[in-house]
Amino acid sequence: MSHEPYDIGPARPRLDALAKACGTELFSADSYPPGLLWAGARRCGVPHGILRGVDASAARALPGVHAVLTREDVPGSNRQGIVHKDMPVLCGTRVRHCGDPVALVVAESRDVLRKALALIHVDIEPRQALADMDAALAPDAPLIHESHGSNILLAAEIHKGNAEEALAQCDVILEETYFTPAQAHAFLETENGLARLDEDGILHLTVSTQAPFRDRFEIGHALGIEPWKIRVHSPFLGGGFGGKDGATVQCLLGLAALRLPGRTIKMWWDREESFLAGYKRHAARMHYRLGAMNDGTLRSLVCHLWYDTGAYAHLGGEIMELGMEHAAGPYRVDHMDCRGLCVYTNNPVAGAFRGFGVAQASLAFEGMMDRLADRLGRDRLDLRRQNALRRGDRNCAGVTLTSSVGLDECLRRVQGHELWTTRHAWKKDAPAFTRRGVGVAAVFNGMGYGRGLADNAIAKIELTPDGRFVIYSGVPDMGQGNASTFAQIAGEMLCQDAGRLEVIQPDTERSHPSGSASAGRTTYTFGQALIKACEMMTTKLVRRAALALMIDEPGGFTLVPGAVRHLPTGKELPLTVMGAMLPRDDRVCVAEYLMPVSREVPDTGKDFPLGFPHLIFPFAAHLVRVEIDELTGLVRVCDYLAATDGGRVLNPQNFHQQIEGAVAQGLGFALMEGFGTENARITTPDLSTYLIPTSLDLPDTQSVAVETLEHSGPFGMKGVGEVGMNGPLPAVASALSDALGAHIVRAPVTPAMILELLASRGAQA
Amino acid sequence: MSHEPYDIGPARPRLDALAKACGTELFSADSYPPGLLWAGARRCGVPHGILRGVDASAARALPGVHAVLTREDVPGSNRQGIVHKDMPVLCGTRVRHCGDPVALVVAESRDVLRKALALIHVDIEPRQALADMDAALAPDAPLIHESHGSNILLAAEIHKGNAEEALAQCDVILEETYFTPAQAHAFLETENGLARLDEDGILHLTVSTQAPFRDRFEIGHALGIEPWKIRVHSPFLGGGFGGKDGATVQCLLGLAALRLPGRTIKMWWDREESFLAGYKRHAARMHYRLGAMNDGTLRSLVCHLWYDTGAYAHLGGEIMELGMEHAAGPYRVDHMDCRGLCVYTNNPVAGAFRGFGVAQASLAFEGMMDRLADRLGRDRLDLRRQNALRRGDRNCAGVTLTSSVGLDECLRRVQGHELWTTRHAWKKDAPAFTRRGVGVAAVFNGMGYGRGLADNAIAKIELTPDGRFVIYSGVPDMGQGNASTFAQIAGEMLCQDAGRLEVIQPDTERSHPSGSASAGRTTYTFGQALIKACEMMTTKLVRRAALALMIDEPGGFTLVPGAVRHLPTGKELPLTVMGAMLPRDDRVCVAEYLMPVSREVPDTGKDFPLGFPHLIFPFAAHLVRVEIDELTGLVRVCDYLAATDGGRVLNPQNFHQQIEGAVAQGLGFALMEGFGTENARITTPDLSTYLIPTSLDLPDTQSVAVETLEHSGPFGMKGVGEVGMNGPLPAVASALSDALGAHIVRAPVTPAMILELLASRGAQA
């Protein structure tokens, strides 16, 4: 066993790397306990309609079918949803999108399941499909949720200063409308889980989920059982990105398990079902009017954002809020009017996705910055530096930035980088029939839940009887590496090597509620709780060692790998002895952390119900160099640079992996991933029609850490799970406009669009 | 269920009162699990000798005998002892007092056990019995413990100033020698317990013990098993007083259980065995030379203390140390030379006993004060007030009293009491053939373990799934009521009523090491730990409630009976819901407290190994009025007043009960309880020969609380378990000398001694 502490700062190999590389780490999808049954949902396949009946007689008669359940079999409220409980577990009278489930089948095998699902006959009277927000907002549009009384899920406003008046006084006023598409999370491991009702009436679930603790309440409410009679275990996830934040398989699995006590039920959506029934990024439309002075000072923004939440709310309102909170970008803008409408349609359900509403708005505010720079004849990067938020400024939502702000330093790093300084020469060197462009973007992303919803974590650490430390994580690891960082934090605090540290993935029975793995909050919030728990553990161990060594004051003790040492005498007590000696409850420390929230009351026209505003922001400046094939319209991303302020970096490897992954996903969003619908029916139902970038489509991203110190965070860090997603689209748009001389207002920028732009530019020229 | 919080201050009924009054509270002795076997020891019956052999063949042959074990059957070190491991579990080659065990029998029933014990033939070659300290200290005396190299267990010295020189300069020098006897604890529930070795190799014991956590180490060392393979449970004790602090039945029971795995073994000493084999108070001899000035100022004390520890050490050295630390009484004395000798003899083993060495010295230092007052023609109480320690003074051990000191106030209360102010008239009113006397005494008693041995407690409190609080006590309740006070402390801190509070008696598996129930430390040390645990619990519950109620700052919350309430909104979360909601480890809080120790290095000629000096002292002033029957020599205690400074009183009922019990035990010590030996053989083997006071022998003690504030203690308290024991003997001696005109130097003061004194006084007159 190595005796080098698994500490903070250097790049430490991830604790989960070997097991994942060898395939011994079991994901939820890898679990096939003996005797399991398979569950699957019959999806309605119709975007909007009245459900007249479900005929399951043929399916029920099929040998190997254990149960076919419909709405009448759901014992509870039948309602799911994180904030708005508007999504049925099984539809009874109404279907609102093609993926709505109308029956649940439990069968002996996957084959029988497929056959049984095909045998279910569903009788639906179709109604007008509201295929876009305009249709849904039309005065005579049918209501998708009658009880809600409107197709508007949330109408919200942010007012800062006097935007219209200030706009009128500006030297320059620019106006534009931007469009971003729905996007699929396209995680490796699609939605899945297992459930079993045990003899004590406890419902056990193992689910690929980002929010095991919240799941208990979702399931409990939907199925009418006490949340504490539900145990949810969340192993490592094969990706999440927001798509596993909220109920996917949970309630359906629970329902099946309640019906078949003692049996283990597995449900695993294939890619097509994941695309059909899973959550998507909200498609958005954004209308911007930006006013500035001739010297480049931003002065006023009036904007209107529309987010298409599809058939159900999920976190639609909160996602739009976050877009609005970031609407003016990471810049000083004294006046802003921002109005938002989050609209129900019959499109697939939109929900949480890395970049959470901000990835959309980033195209708009950065597009406006490019236009302004071009209009004023200014260097695009320079104009951004001039207006960049600094510590102490108030952002466009009215929040005074007392947390760390490293944006200008991010921009300065990009400005000094040779990818930027050599851009003119590089562009001139473009081969024949090739255009080159260099783009930049400055982005940010509020971290954590924001005000109104406690962003809290409870960490538990145990000294085992054999002298190791086990960290009970309360927040899942979707692959981003937080579990390993938790071990590093404990290793740092307790001065122990990796061999003595183990992280248990969330399990509502063993670990403690710590919110969801989302919002860039995971390591920040749980890490702070864990630091406190480790401090408690250290104090405890020192005091217990002092007792055992008959030293009556605890000064002079320290933890060393494998032992507690009394420095003045050199006496040591091995952790193995302490572990054996201490009673169970004295080997466990539990500590909590609550993220600070802004106590300013922003000047909003309308209070948001939850999650507004944010206090702490990671920042980033992205640079991209692209090459356009004038003959095919294909865009090649040649170079990518991301300078990110995530506070202090705990493990450079994990940090850069996060950035690289987000950039890849962002480049897909910019250039390839338009999740298509036509009349509310999906036109990209699988990975042959919905393309995501492969490693061949991507450059080696250069990631630069700009290490500010975020005092409130663990060892000075901020979360970088989200911010990297927001840069690629505006940076690519900027590079393309640099290459084409035409501004990009719509994503993804497909070869067809490029060819069209080239043609119109050619016509102009 | 009452909704009145079970809080601190008012007299609250003891939580254990009803169950004890109804007989439903099960003591260790009450436990008769099915299939139990009985164990008993064959005692040698010889004060000193060489063990030639043990013939157990007849006993082994007796039907119903499961095992007869001798020294060879003991797998470990065979040594017991808290500090000095000098006491064998079973003697092999040597016996050192009549109670030494030479064989252990396990039998089907108590009857068979008795018969089998009688059938064991023990072959002992007698050696000279060292029946008193002088014999043991004689140059040619045989060594009781050869490996120790001397019959002196501990020789110790305390030097403060320059005592001999100062003495020579005094106006008055007084000299006297005092004697106090051994005393039996005479608890209701004699030593007993049960043991069983389970299938996992865990040795389970239920024992009437004051130190369950230390017991594990005693048993482990003696029997060669890991302490953490031993689980000790300590139910309520039917009295302890120090006599159950240290191994009694533990190792013998453990030995029997190891031999007979899976069987439950019970051992219960009857009164005679308890007198024979149990611990006693040390008999002591004390030679004092006290010097004072004519104005009454004490100036120098030179004294020599001898403590007879009997055959084994137990805590003999530490007990003598405490006597020495208190040798000059609670007075300012600038110079002191105190030498102590703790001596091995072949008498019954002496050990811890309420008053722990100080009950002996109190006779001497208070006797000297009376003599000095008489010599100077001063009022006895007045002289004590003149010299009484005050906060900021250094005591005779050289410790600066920064803790609370209420002695003068105790004396003032006595001085103003009508039992004192009317004393002259009362004495004059004595009937014929009756003499009356009024005595006072001022005493103190160091609290806790003192320096060198961490005086620590670890409290655990749990919110149960059904919304109650369970306190896991780490220190036994011998009857003094600490368990109930723990509930009160938790009730106070958590604002809960008695119905929601439960105290679990110590169990090394469920509660945490908190030292022994002794040294007046129990409520002080564990109470402080419990307060911290309750603070943690409150913080935790408030934060969890804030989460559940979606309130993102924990301000404004409070606990109310049965719930957590958010005061600004009036929202409540019932504890039943919180209990159901929280995971196991989040319902438990563990906190530690370490008693402060003096950091002064006293000017001692020789460092004590452990437990010296003390920092915190309860004080008391006692007054007694006695009546002497001149014809019979019988002394009647007419009135008793105890003014006690124990810091703030947590529950007046418990406080006064402690004082009343100690006064009763002290009056027995003063007037009746001489534990007799003749040539090291007990002459008072049972309660017909060893008399203790009954309620008819005792007055109604008036107990007055002098409530200083001890800042370091829980809600300002100090422990009063010991101090009350120290007053009655010197107060009675003072009253008798007041009545007789002759000073008392020996206890107990029997009618024969009184008649003798009357006769000699009569002769003088």
Automatic annotation (TrEMBL), chains A, B:
Q: Name one GO molecular function term.
A: iron ion binding
Q: Name one Pfam family in it.
A: MoCoBD_1
Q: Where is the Aldehyde oxidase/xanthine dehydrogenase a/b hammerhead domain?
A: 22-128
The record's listing under InterPro entries reads: Ald_Oxase/Xan_DH_a/b, Ald_Oxase/Xan_DH_a/b_sf, Ald_Oxase/xanthine_DH-like, AldOxase/xan_DH_MoCoBD1, AldOxase/xan_DH_MoCoBD2, AldOxase/xan_DH_Mopterin-bd_sf
Q: Under what name is this protein listed? A: Xanthine dehydrogenase, molybdenum binding subunit apoprotein
This chain's source organism reads Desulfomicrobium apsheronum
- Lineage, opening ranks: Bacteria, Pseudomonadati, Thermodesulfobacteriota, Desulfovibrionia, Desulfovibrionales
